[in-house]
Amino acid sequence: xxxxxxxxxxxxxxxxxxxxxxxxxxxxxxxxxxxxxxxxxxxxxxxxxxxxxxxxxxxxxxxxxxxxxxxxxx
Length: 74
Known about the structure:
- This protein is α+β, with helices and mostly antiparallel strands.
- It has a single domain (about 10-70), classed as Ubiquitin-like (UB roll).
- Helix content is about 20%, strand content about 45%.
- It is built from 1 helix and 4 strands.
- Strands 1, 2, 3 and 4 form a 4-stranded mixed sheet that branches.
């Protein structure tokens, strides 16, 4: 599949780092499985992975975390 951002790269299975911010909370999640563009690094997550990433971020915000760095757990 051709990348929707750079229009020249192709998506390949890999891992990425997702950074989410909301209000005063910033969550960095490393090692997230994704389809990653081999040219620009744009990534696409499956719906299951997206749900897990958002749940991790919601949990951090509910704890009142300001900055949290986590590793993705399947």
